[in-house]
Structures are given as structure tokens and as C-alpha cells.
Design a protein that fits this description.
The structure holds three protein chains of three kinds.
Chain A (H helix, E strand, L loop, with lengths): L1 H25 L12 H36 L2 H35 L1 H34 L7 H33 L13 H5 L4 H30 L3 H22 L2 H15 L1 H8 L4 H25 L10 H19 L8 H7 L8 H4 L1 H24 L9 H29 L3 H5 L1 H23 L14 H27 L4 E3 L3 E2 L10 H34 L1
Antiparallel strand pairs in A: 1-2
Chain B lengths: L2 H23 L5 H20 L2 H16 L4 H23 L19 E4 L2 E4 L12 H18 L1 H4 L31 H10 L24 H15 L9
Antiparallel strand pairs in B: 1-2
Chain C lengths: L1 H12 L2 H13 L39 H10 L15 H14 L20 H14 L1 H4 L11 E2 L5 E2 L16 H10 L20 H13 L12 E6 L19 E4 L1 E2 L14 E8 L3 E9 L9 H7 L7 E7 L8 H6 L14 E7 L8 E7 L6 E3 L6 E7 L2 E9 L12 E9 L11 E2 L3 E5 L6 H26 L2
Parallel strand pairs in C: 3-6, 3-16
Antiparallel strand pairs in C: 1-2, 4-6, 5-15, 6-7, 7-13, 8-9, 8-14, 9-10, 10-11, 12-13, 14-15, 14-16
Helix pairs in contact in C: 2-4, 3-4, 5-8, 7-8
The chains are: A mainly alpha, B mainly alpha, C alpha+beta.
């Protein structure tokens, strides 16, 4: 079996590669907008690459610290080792991040001196602070990494954890400062009539700052987790020894769980950000959701669907890693069908692509049957149920290797099923009733009780789950037995995440349209137009490819170094 | 039943179901949506089957056997001869010049500008209110009726006597005039937005809405501001739609 | 929720008069006198319901009473080709019946109502019957309907309310008020159209009256007159086919038979002042050919009259003063650098009618003949509303036209190079049409026009798809060879 799949891979990969990459690079539309390398493309390229790496290195210390702490509490050395390996990857990427950041700054200052001059003048105290914290951050990172074994036990360990905490705080501070600049460009506050910043704190504490801080913090963890999981998958697939396979199977599992847990609340953080954008400027909100970027959201929906599917697939593949999991196999179909239905609603466009004949037949842009599915209430229902379905996959995945010792387990499980069913019904009712029948005032606000329903179901079921399996035995199972398919799912997860981040980042920044700083500093350059969707998608794809290429090189380097250390 | 047969049956079933829905309903589902649905069904079916080792094997084994088994030699030879021709034809079919007209992504409800210059002043759309809504009782009824008269003297040729976008001159228009009935159009919009669309017409649309396609007149030129508000109120009242509001 | 459920119940209970006021009064007036606010803008005008005249009834009765089904059908299905929409989906069956009663009451028509005219001696459609019908039609109907039934009347027609009317155009069956069925045509011939100059051919007082079998022959002839290509099918791409050789200056040259017609609706101009509410030209059919040097467009549109101001016959039909017929073809001004390469190839459109400041249009206007003046072709450029200006006609743009049996045909030959357009094969060029019927007093802004369509010059031969096919062919073979060699290398 191993041999044959290997042979198929050799045929399949070159074919897929040619199939996807060739048309992408051969396309003429890419070069058609005033030469290939416009100033905007340079800024776009380096800003996005810098952001990818920054997101990665900011997220890794978060769960390194959590893992280290878990290791201490559970007295399990495996956590400590995995945490340290994560951190090793982070150290190498740190250097790349700084280099990219410097290039990005240089590009912006030279190509958009007008904007950068304005921003620097407005935010110069924070720029200095930013630089200072970066130096502290790097120092803390090296301390944290280099002192890992020296401060291995007892009080030393406590001190080491302290350094980790400081490292995280400094990382978060860096992100908050950079977020203040970015969000100020979208929602400038604290400026006078001529556009000069008069109140620095207000400029920083603009309406989008905290939604963005939260959204990026959660997304970074999901993204970092996905990248590390892909790294583990890569190491797993290329591992020669059994123990190595076991280690990376487990590492991939931990990283994937971190990623999936962060993925679940992410749509809610996105809601908060979007609703703040709406209330700051209705125009920007409509541009985002209903205007020219509405089409981007269809692409986004498809990728988010892929993410959910990939995550679920990984979990499903894990059901049978222990014998007891076989009983959960039949549920896969049902979860998949629920997910699929939600996904179809999720990406049904409100105004679908129509050929001219279809346009005439339908008599307008809206198809009478599909149009209701294209509206926000339908999407809200879909995404909430998708989250719950993923949660069910996760529960079953955990149960596959656990056995319960409490007498009321069956009752508990029935209650869980009841809560979940009630939650689904409530979500559908809220969406359908307030979305289509009630006064439109409640349309947006109805999403809040839906989210609360979902959260309640997640939390209450988790609590019940905890008590059902507390004190229960963990069924013996061997790490390292994961299927190759599940590891590919992890890689797909990482690639989709990267692409999604690129796309959403572009959308968020591009809805300013003709403005550098919305309504304050106008973009007067030749590139101040909204590029076509295909152009944007191609640029994002190419940046994703570059990022993944660099990451693979880094993985190889750290792989070799580790191999050396092991020896 | 072989794994491939299951995939084929499920995919085909969903395809027929979607086509059937369109057929029964009388308006076919857009082919782009149908192909997305069908592709996704295919994908999910493959995923479900491949979750277990056994399922994954049932997917790969036929391919492996086909490629390596001695008994399949004859079939293999045939496929290897035919395959280049099939793929070449697919490549040809994809690249041959298409006679389909270029396809425009048109945004039906684009973002409105913050400030509209109309009736010789700057109007901030987010602040402007419909003055007709402040009237009560008979005064309101009368204003709505006035709106109806204005509608039937100016708008119904295209937007229809039933406000369904199917006026007697609608079939010549591409894009078709929007209906006001149903929950998709004005029910999704604030009144100030509708006001903007009426006052500035097709020419006032931003680029992404392909203003060159819309022949909606610039009503600012022939209707007074109050008349526009009256007709806006009328189309809401007649269709039983409520304008979108952010608070009550 | 309760309100939602109760709404239909409440509305059903409401008075039929209220429904009439809500839905019908806008055209037919509060008292049903056909004087609602919209009535001035409609032709045919909304019926004065108090007179009780039903033009599209099927009853043979002398006393102008319609059948019950006639009234129901008109309310439920509307009258195609007029502003009367189908109310079937909007009103319930019961409401439609109540409304029919209400309308009969307005017209002071008392029950019982008559039944439909009996259709004796039906003759099936066959060549002999059509031929007999053709002879009868020419003799008894052609005076008003024209030899080929395109409605090209030889006299000015008015209805009982003094409004000018045009005969039905039998080549466009979609405009038949009662639907396109042979039974319906038979009823019309038998009964006539009350209120208009269409007489009953069953009436012995009519000198031209026909026997039932003869009527069926005429029905079969009328049935055969439909020209289905004239019905717009929603396709917007006019494909110009490549011709190796010359394209003769002749409408009937066999070279044209290879190119199919594509048809478009024309709408009256309602966008800016001097609006036209009652057009007479509602569609145009277009085909195109091109060779190395010339693109040739052939346009055909039905016009009831050849309007030649100053000519006596023409004056008579038009009822006095009238204008010249006209037709125009509009395309973007692609030659002037206002369109990028992409916009050129993908056919980005300027604003319809007059373009805009940054995307101009070129308009070739054909003006029909006038007394002592031949028809002519003029060229205009425009960059937005009010900027239309005449320019000298681009070198060697030529045209020819003819009016025959109710149809204008116009052929325009554009050199591929040397006009403001610079046609290239494989390009999509936006194109729009406009028409003026002089007898309907259409001039300047008062005219009908189409939406934007595309003109596509289909390449005679293209190398690229074959290269792709060949490339994929070779790559596949390489993969196969590599695979087979690898396999041989292994046990």
C-alpha cells in the first residue's frame, strides 16, 4: 500500500502542479495593468510576506508557553520537547520577519513617501516605542530559547515560564501598535478638519483597533497552528523511524487542535470587526459586503469551507486510531452531509454568474430560489451550524481514545445531543424569522443571539464532556499510526489558511478604495483603482507560493539542524 | 458497489436533482451555481469514502491495478493510446475562441457615496431622512397616493404596473429593471439609498456597477425632491416592504 | 407571525372596489373611464371600461358582449404587446372572478353572457390551403395589412375613439393580444376587432366577407407569415463571419444566407427630455459579414410606413406633417486611445446613447429619403450628453437601403481600418441600434433604441487552440513514456 501510494504521488503531483501553476503564470491579464511591477505590487508583496511571518512568530510563543505550562502541570516531558521544537522554528523565522519588515518599510517610504511621511509624523512616538519593543522581543526570544535546558527544573522553570510570558506580552504589544496604524488608515479618529492628528491616543484607540486586535490575535493562533501542523505533517511523511513518526503524529495533533480551536471563534471576531466597519462608515461596509468586493467574499467562502472540511477530515481520519473509535465511523457521513449543506448555502452567491441567456430568463440578477440563500441571515445559519458540526467531530475524535467510568454517561450524552439539536433549531429559527420575516432592524442584531446559542452549546457540551470522561481511562493507542491522508489534510489546511489570510488582508485594506487614510489622505497614484478579482486572486496566490517556498526552506534548515543535534 | 460507482451515482443524482428543481420551478438554476454544487458534492463524497483505510484502498486499488496488473494490459494499452487524444481535445476545446459574449461582473447594489450633490446642495446620505414618513393620517395617505401617480407617469413603463420589474418596455432592457416586490431589492436598502438611485440614475452609478449599461434616467432633472420621496414611499407601501433601518 | 398568516385572509375579505383602486385605477381611472394618471402615455390607450367594448372578445354575438372566459383571460393573462399585465399570479381565482363581475358592471353588461363563436369547417395547415389563403388575403386584407402581413397599411387607420391605430404585424406573432393560436386568429377574422376598422368577415354586410372554409385558408396563410428570426431571444452577440472574397452590394446575394439574423428589442427613448412613450418600431434584426478589408452590417426592421416627407401618399398615411425615417448604429470610439488594450479586446462599453467624457461613441446615422432628396449617411461623435457633433463621414463608409413590404433593409460597409473604430478579428465591439419612424413623428431624441450588444469578428482560422492541443498531446505522451520506462526498470 505504501509503495503504491508513493508511485501515484509521483504521477499526481507533477500533473497537479502543471495543471494549476501553468495557467496562473501564463495568464496575460496579470501583466496588463500598466506593466507587471507597479509600486502597489511591491508594497503588496512585501507587506503580505512580512505579515505572514509576523503572524507566525507572534502566534508560536503563545502556544509554546501553553504547551510548556501543560508539560509542567501534567509532568509530561513530551509537551516540553514539542514546545521547544516549535520555538526553534520560530527563532529562524524571526530573522526572516525582521528582514522582510525592513524591506517593506524601505519600499513604502520610497514609493509612497507622501503617505509614510504623514503616518510617521502622526505616529512618531509609537514608532520609536515599536522599535524599542522589537529589540526587547528579540532579546527575550533568545533568552527563552537558549535558557530552555539550563532553566529546566524547579525554580528555574518558573523563571523560564516568566520569560515566556514577557515574550508574549512584548509580541502582543508589537501587534497592537502596528494594528493601531493599520486601523487608523481605515477609521481615522482624533484628526482635525485638515486631517492632522491632534489626539494621538484617540488616533490609536480608533473604533476598529480592538476588533482588529482580537481578530488578528485569534487568527494568528489558528494560522500559526496550521503552519506548525503542516510542518509536523511534513516531518511525519518524511520520517524514517517509528519513534519519529510517533512524535510528529502527536505534534501534528496538538498543533491541529490548537488551530481548530482558534478557528471556531474566528468568524465571531470577524463579525465584530465587520459590524464596527459598518457602523464607522456605511459606505465602506457596503463596499465590503455588497459592492465590488462582494465577489471576493464568494472566493473567501469557498476557502473557509475548505478549511472546515480539511479540519473535519483530519478529525474523521483520527476516529479509528484506536479500536473503540470504529463505532463513530457511521457518524462521518451525517456530519459531512450537514457540513456540505451548510457550505453550499455559505457560498451561494446572492448575484450568481449568469450567462446572458440565463439573465434574460430570470429577468434580473436575482434567482428567485437562490436569492434568499445569498443573504446574510442564511450565511449566519450556515456558519453557526458548521461550527457546531466541527465541534461534534472534535468530540467524537476525543472519545475515540477515551472510555468513561461514570454511571450517567449515557444520560450525559443524550443531554449533549439535546443541547446541540436545540441549538441548531434555535439558530435556524432566529435566522429565518428575524432574517426574512421580522423588521429589518433586527436583521443584523439577530446574529448575536445566534452566536450566543452556539457559544452556549459549545461550552455546556464541553463541560458535560469533561465530567463524563473525568477519571476515565485513556484507551491505549499508538501514536504514529495516522494515515497519510490525514497529514495531507493538515497541509491543505495550512495552504488554505495562508491564501485566505492574503485574500482577506487584501480586501480589508482595499475597501479604502481611493484613500490611503480614509477620507484624509487620498491615493493619487496611478494604482489607485480597485484591481480585478482575478488579478487580486493571482497576486495573492503568488505571494502564498513565495511564502510557502520560504517556509519549506526554513523547515529544511531546522530539520537538518535538528538532525545534527540529534546526532 | 464500487467506490467509483457510488461517487458517480451520488454526483449524478445531485446534478439531476438540481436540474429537476429548476425544471419544476420553471426557472432553471444558474449553470455556474449548479456546477459549483455538483463539484462540491463530488468532493465531499470522495472525502467521506476515503476516511477509512478500506475506503481509501477502494479508491486507489482500481488505479493501481489498472497501471500495474498484468491482466489489465490490454485495457492499459487502449487507454494509453486514447488518453493523449482526449486530453488534447480538451485543451483544444478550452482554448478555442469562444463565441460567448464577454461576461460582466455587475454589482447591483453598489456602495453609495457619502455625499451626493443633488438639487444644488450637498446631501449627506447617512443623515438624510424621508420627510414623508413624518406625515401622519390622511396627509400621509395622500402623499403616498401622489407617489403612485408619479410612479405611473414615470416609472411603470419599465418597473411594471405590478412593481415586479416587468413593465411593457422591460424586455428590451439589459440588465432588466429591478423589481420592488420580493425581499431582495428595496427591502434590503435604506430609503436614502433608494433616494440616491432615483435622483442620480444610471449615470450616477460607480464603475463597478457598469453605469454604461443602466438606462435609469437621472430623475433629479425632471422630478422635484419631494416628488422623489413620495414615489420612494409609494414603492415601499405598495409592495409591503419595510426600508432597512439601523435602529428604531 | 400572526399578521403574516392573516394578511391573505384580510385582503381576500376586502372589497373588490379597493383592489380595483389599488391595482387598476392607475391606468383605467377611479371610475373606469380609462383616464388614470398613466393613460396619457399609453398606446393602445387603457380601455374606457364604462363603454363596455371588448376588442379582444371571441363571442359572435352582435350585442358586443364578451364571453365570460374572455374577461377572465384578459385579467388573468393580460394583453401581450400592450401595457396590460397578467394579473393571474397577483389575484386569486376568486378575486379575478369578482373583478370580472365588477368590470362587467362598470360596462353595464348584464348576464347571461354569450358563448364563443363556433368554428366551422376547420381546414388543416397545408400548402394548398395556404396558397388559397394567400390569394384571398391579397384581395381582401392586404390593403391594410400589406401583402406579407407586416402591417404596412396603405391608409391611415383610426379607432372609434379617434386614436391612430396600426394593423397587427403578422410576422411578429409575439405581439398578438390574444395569443398566437389558429383558433384565436379565426375568431379575429370572424368577429373583427370591435372599436377598430377591422371588420367582421362573417358579416354579410361586409362586401369582402368570407365563407368559414375561406376564413380557415386565410388563417393558415396568416399562420405561415411568422418570421421567427425576428423574435429577440436574449442573445447579445452578433457574430460577423469571415468571407474570403468580396461582399457584393446586394441584399439578395447568396453570400448572406450563411449568416444568421440576430434580433434585438428596441425600446422607446425614456432617459432624457423629449421622451417617446408610444413607439411603432419594436425590434431590429442584424447580420454581419467581413472580409480582409470591409465589415458589412445588414439591418432589417419593420416599419408600417415608408415616411417620405413631402410625398403625397406618405403624407396621407402619416396624417400630415411627419419626419424622415432613420436608423443609427452606435459603437465606441475605439481609435482615439480612450480604451486600453484590455478594454478594447473585452469590449468595455461607453455610456449608452452619448458616451461619457472619457469614453466617447461614434454614431452612424442613416436618414431616409425626403421629397427630392435621397437617403444619406451621416457620422456623429459624442462624449457625453449634449456633445453630439457631426463630423465628415469617415473615408469610404458606404451604404444602401431599400423599403419593401413593410420592412426597411439597410446595409452599411465599414472599412476595417480608417474609421474611428479599427476593427480587428477576435475583438468584441459594443454596438447599439436606434430607429426613427417618421410617420410617428419620431425625430431627434424621440426614437427607439436597443441596449448594448456585442459585435464579434469571428476569426477565419486560429492557430492557438491547435498549438495547445498539440502541446498537451506531447506532454501526455512524455508522461506515459516515462511511466512505462520506469515500470520496466522495476521487477
Amino acid at each position: 500500500m505504501g509503495m503504491t501510494t508513493l508511485r501515484i504521488k509521483k504521477i499526481l503531483f507533477p500533473l497537479l502542479f502543471t495543471a494549476f501553476l501553468m495557467p496562473l503564470l501564463c495568464s496575460t491579464a496579470f501583466a496588463s495593468e500598466g506593466g507587471v511591477f507597479t509600486p502597489r505590487l511591491w508594497v503588496w508583496l512585501f507587506a503580505q510576506l512580512h505579515l505572514y511571518f509576523a503572524a507566525f512568530i507572534l502566534s508560536v510563543p503563545v502556544f509554546v508557553l501553553i504547551l510548556e505550562l501543560t508539560g509542567v502541570i501534567r509532568k509530561d516531558k513530551r509537551f516540553d520537547r514539542v514546545a521547544r521544537e516549535f520555538l526553534a522554528i520560530s527563532v529562524v523565522t524571526h530573522i526572516v520577519t525582521v528582514i522582510l519588515g525592513v524591506i517593506f518599510a524601505a519600499v513604502v517610504f520610497s514609493l509612497y513617501s507622501n503617505l509614510s511621511g504623514y503616518m510617521y509624523k502622526a505616529f512618531s512616538p509609537t514608532v520609536k516605542l515599536y522599535a524599542a519593543i522589537i529589540i526587547i522581543d528579540i532579546a527575550l526570544l533568545y533568552l527563552y530559547y537558549l535558557l530552555w535546558s539550563r532553566l529546566g527544573s524547579g525554580r528555574g522553570k518558573l523563571l523560564h515560564l516568566g520569560i515566556g510570558l514577557l515574550l508574549n506580552l512584548s509580541g502582543i504589544a508589537i501587534m497592537f501598535i502596528a494594528n493601531a496604524w493599520t486601523t487608523f488608515m481605515m477609521a481615522p479618529t482624533g484628526v482635525d478638519a485638515s486631517g492632522v492628528v491632534v489626539d494621538l491616543w484617540q488616533a490609536i484607540n480608533n473604533p476598529l483597533w480592538h476588533p482588529m486586535n482580537l481578530h488578528r490575535f485569534v487568527a494568528n493562533i489558528a494560522f500559526g497552528g496550521a503552519i506548525v501542523a503542516a510542518y509536523a505533517a511534513y516531518r511525519f511523511l518524511s520520517a524514517a523511524r517509528e519513534e519519529e513518526r510517533a512524535r510528529y503524529d502527536w505534534m501534528g495533533y496538538i498543533a491541529a487542535v490548537v488551530s481548530i480551536l482558534a478557528l471556531l471563534p474566528l468568524p465571531f471576531a470577524g463579525y465584530w470587526l465587520t459590524s464596527e466597519i459598518y457602523s464607522y462608515s456605511q459606505q465602506m461596509g457596503i463596499t465590503l459586503m455588497g459592492g465590488v468586493f462582494g465577489w471576493m467574499f464568494i472566493a473567501q467562502a469557498a476557502v473557509i469551507g475548505t478549511l472546515f472540511l480539511g479540519a473535519n477530515y483530519y478529525l474523521w481520519c483520527g476516529f479509528e486510531r484506536a479500536k473503540g473509535g470504529a463505532v463513530y465511523r457511521p457518524y462521518v457521513k451525517y456530519i459531512a452531509i450537514v457540513l456540505a449543506l451548510c457550505f453550499l448555502v455559505w457560498f451561494t452567491p446572492h448575484t450568481p454568474h449568469l450567462s446572458s441567456l440565463e439573465l434574460k430568463e430570470i429577468g434580473g440578477r436575482f434567482h428567485p430560489l437562490l436569492a434568499p440563500l445569498g443573504l446574510m441571515p442564511a450565511k449566519n445559519i450556515a456558519v453557526n451550524i458548521m461550527i457546531l458540526a466541527t465541534f461534534v467531530s472534535f468530540l467524537l475524535f476525543r472519545r475515540a481514545v477515551r472510555s468513561s467510568s461514570v454511571s450517567w454517561a449515557a444520560i450525559g450524552k443524550t443531554i449533549q445531543a439535546g443541547i446541540l439539536s436545540a441549538a441548531v433549531l434555535n439558530i435556524i429559527f432566529l435566522g429565518v424569522y428575524y432574517g426574512y420575516f421580522a423588521d429589518s432592524v433586527y436583521k443584523i442584531t439577530s446574529s448575536i443571539p445566534q452566536v450566543l446559542t452556539t457559544l452556549f452549546a459549545l461550552i455546556s457540551c464541553s463541560v458535560i464532556e469533561f465530567f463524563i470522561y473525568r477519571g476515565g481511562e485513556s484507551v491505549e493507542h499508538k501514536w504514529g499510526g495516522a494515515s497519510e491522508r490525514s497529514q495531507y489534510a493538515l497541509i491543505v489546511l495550512a495552504v488554505s489558511f495562508t491564501w485566505l489570510m492574503g485574500l482577506m488582508g487584501f480586501i480589508r485594506s482595499a475597501i479604502r478604495q481611493h484613500w490611503h487614510v480614509y477620507t484624509v489622505v487620498r491615493d493619487v497614484s496611478a494604482d489607485a483603482f480597485t484591481p480585478t478579482i482575478s488579478y487580486a486572486a493571482k497576486v495573492v496566490s503568488i505571494i502564498t507560493l513565495i511564502f510557502l517556498a520560504i517556509i519549506i526552506v526554513i523547515f529544511r534548515i531546522s530539520h537538518l539542524r535538528r538532525a545534527g543535534e540529534d546526532r | 458497489m464500487g467506490a467509483y460507482r457510488v461517487i458517480l451515482l451520488v454526483t449524478l443524482g445531485v446534478y439531476l436533482l438540481l436540474k429537476g428543481i429548476g425544471f419544476v420551478y420553471g426557472v432553471a438554476l444558474p449553470s455556474s451555481v449548479v456546477s459549483m454544487y455538483v463539484f462540491f458534492t463530488f468532493l465531499v463524497t470522495v472525502l467521506i469514502i476515503s476516511v477509512t483505510d478500506k475506503g481509501a484502498l477502494s479508491l486507489t486499488t482500481p488505479i493501481i491495478e489498472f497501471l500495474y496488473k498484468e491482466e489489465k494490459k490490454k485495457l492499459r494499452k487502449v487507454v494509453f493510446v486514447v488518453l493523449p487524444f482526449v486530453l488534447a481535445f480538451i485543451a483544444y476545446a478550452f482554448t478555442k475562441p469562444s463565441y460567448e459574449e464577454p461576461f460582466t461582473l455587475r454589482v447591483v447594489h453598489p456602495a453609495p457615496p457619502r455625499i451626493v450633490n443633488a438639487y444644488d446642495r450637498n446631501i449627506e446620505l447617512e443623515k438624510i431622512k424621508n420627510p414623508i414618513r413624518e406625515l401622519t393620517g390622511d396627509a400621509y395617505e395622500e402623499a403616498v397616493h401622489d407617489g403612485g401617480e408619479i410612479y405611473f407617469k414615470n416609472c411603470f413603463f419599465c418597473h411594471g404596473a405590478k412593481l415586479d420589474g416587468k413593465g411593457h418596455f422591460a424586455k428590451g432592457l439589459n440588465p432588466a429593471p429591478l423589481p420592488f416586490t420580493g425581499k431582495d431589492t428595496i427591502a434590503q436598502l435604506e430609503e436614502s439609498y433608494v433616494f440616491w438611485r432615483v435622483v442620480k440614475g444610471g449615470e450616477g452609478l460607480p464603475e463597478e456597477s457598469a453605469p454604461w449599461m443602466s438606462v435609469m434616467p437621472v430623475w433629479e432633472e425632471s422630478l422635484k425632491e419631494e416628488e422623489v420621496w413620495k414615489v420612494v414611499t409609494f414603492i415601499y407601501e405598495y409592495t409591503g416592504n419595510e426600508p432597512r433601518r439601523w435602529e428604531k | 407571525m400572526i399578521v403574516v398568516i392573516l394578511l391573505p385572509v384580510l385582503s381576500a375579505a376586502s372589497d373588490i372596489k379597493d383592489i380595483y383602486i389599488e391595482k387598476c385605477s392607475w391606468c383605467h381611472g377611479n371610475e373606469g373611464k380609462g383616464d388614470g394618471p398613466a393613460s396619457k402615455f399609453l398606446r393602445p390607450a387603457p380601455r374606457d371600461l364604462t363603454e363596455g367594448v371588448f376588442k379582444y372578445r371571441t363571442s359572435a354575438e352582435e350585442k358586443i358582449k364578451p364571453t365570460w372566459d374572455d374577461v377572465i383571460r384578459i385579467i388573468e393573462d393580460g394583453l401581450p404587446g400592450s401595457a396590460m399585465p397578467a394579473w393571474g399570479g397577483e389575484l386569486s381565482k376568486a378575486e379575478v372572478e369578482e373583478m370580472a363581475d365588477y368590470i362587467l358592471k362598470l360596462g353595464k353588461i348584464e348576464k347571461p353572457l354569450p358563448i364563443s363563436v363556433e368554428r366551422f369547417g376547420e381546414v388543416k395547415v397545408n400548402a394548398e390551403s395556404i396558397e388559397r389563403g394567400r390569394v384571398l388575403f391579397k384581395e381582401r386584407c392586404a390593403e391594410c395589412h400589406g401583402t406579407f402581413g407586416r402591417g404596412n397599411t396603405t391608409k391611415r387607420l383610426k379607432d372609434d375613439w379617434g386614436e391612430v391605430t396600426w394593423p397587427r404585424n403578422f410576422s411578429k406573432p409575439w405581439s398578438f393580444r390574444g395569443g398566437y393560436t389558429r383558433e384565436y386568429i379565426y375568431s379575429r377574422i370572424t368577429i373583427g376587432t370591435p372599436g377598430t376598422q377591422m371588420p367582421s368577415y362573417d358579416d354579410p354586410r361586409n362586401k369582402k366577407s368570407l365563407m368559414p372554409e375561406e376564413r380557415w385558408d386565410v388563417v393558415n396563410y396568416v399562420w405561415s407569415l411568422k418570421e421567427p428570426y425576428k423574435e429577440p431571444r436574449g442573445r447579445d452577440l452578433i457574430t460577423a463571419l469571415y468571407v474570403d472574397g468580396i461582399i457584393p452590394d446586394a441584399f439578395d446575394d447568396p453570400v448572406w444566407s450563411s449568416a444568421p439574423y440576430l434580433s434585438f428589442y428596441l425600446n422607446p427613448q425614456l432617459k432624457r427630455a423629449e421622451k417617446l412613450y408610444t413607439p411603432t418600431i419594436d425590434s431590429v434584426s442584424v447580420k454581419a459579414l467581413y472580409n480582409e478589408k470591409v465589415l458589412t452590417l445588414l439591418m432589417e426592421w419593420d416599419d408600417f410606413t415608408k415616411s417620405v416627407p413631402g410625398l403625397r401618399g406618405s403624407d396621407k398615411i402619416a396624417g400630415g406633417e411627419h419626419a424622415r425615417d432613420g436608423f443609427s448604429v452606435q459603437m465606441p470610439l475605439k481609435g482615439g486611445g480612450e480604451f486600453s488594450e484590455d478594454e478594447r479586446v473585452y469590449g468595455v462599453k461607453p455610456a449608452l446613447e452619448m458616451g461619457s467624457s472619457f469614453r466617447g461613441v461614434v454614431d452612424w446615422l442613416w436618414r431616409g429619403p425626403e421629397k427630392d432628396k435621397r437617403d444619406e449617411l451621416l457620422e456623429f461623435h459624442a462624449h457625453g450628453s449634449g456633445t453630439l457633433k457631426e463630423v465628415p463621414l469617415s473615408a469610404s463608409v458606404r451604404f444602401l437601403s431599400r423599403y419593401r413590404d413593410g420592412s426597411w433593409q439597410l446595409m452599411v460597409k465599414y472599412p476595417l481600418k480608417g474609421t474611428p473604430l479599427d476593427f480587428r478579428s477576435n475583438d468584441f465591439t459594443p454596438i447599439a441600434f436606434a430607429a426613427w419612424d417618421g410617420s410617428n413623428m419620431e425625430r431627434a431624441a424621440r426614437h427607439s433604441l436597443s441596449s448594448w450588444a456585442y459585435l464579434y469578428l469571428k476569426p477565419g482560422y486560429s492557430f492557438k487552440p491547435y498549438a495547445w492541443g498539440l502541446g498537451v498531446f506531447i506532454i501526455t505522451i512524455i508522461f506515459e513514456v516515462v511511466f512505462i520506462r520506469r515500470k520496466r526498470g522495476k521487477p
